[in-house]
Design brief:
Elements lengths: L1 H4 E2 L3 E2 L8 H19 L3 H17 L5 H11 L4 H10 L23 E8 L2 E9 L4 H10 L1 H7 L6 E5 L3 E5 L1
Parallel strand pairs: 3-6
Antiparallel strand pairs: 1-2, 3-4, 5-6
Helix pairs in contact: 2-3, 2-4, 4-5
Length: about 170
Amino acid sequence: LWRLFVHEEKGFIVTDADPTDAEWKVLYRAVKKVEEDTERFSFNTAVRTFMIAVNELAELDCHKRAILEKLLVILCPYAPHVCEELWEMTGHGSTILSEPYPPVEERYLAETSKSYPVAVNGKTRAEMTLSLDATQEEVESMVLRNPGIVKWLEGRTPKKIVYVRNKMINVVV
């Protein structure tokens, strides 16, 4: 968590840049899960959610104030001292304890794509991420252009492409 705010050599690295949708998604997934876990007294799973969110934000190289401040607010009941320290470093004169819990913005949690296993004759050979609103024809076209699948077709024309929405894709040769 500290490394999202402070770099060893550069010092304080929080920026005022606008967050991406991926960063908002990580935050609001954490907000929702921590709120649910806290209400159920499942504190260990809430801590796990914080660890996942911090790791995902680090992978996204997120040092954006809008995201990190909300993350501190939801983390505060679990780690009040470090949150208060980081809150003060972000330039706030008041305590973090007076901040309201951020409401979940569902629009960032809506899934727009899904990862599908793609099999050739029943054996998984690739994985593709497709839009949830892709049609059968679009899916077939994308599958037949996938280099991992083309390799397994060995120049043969598929007899059938079975696409089960939200489940899997199978190319029958």
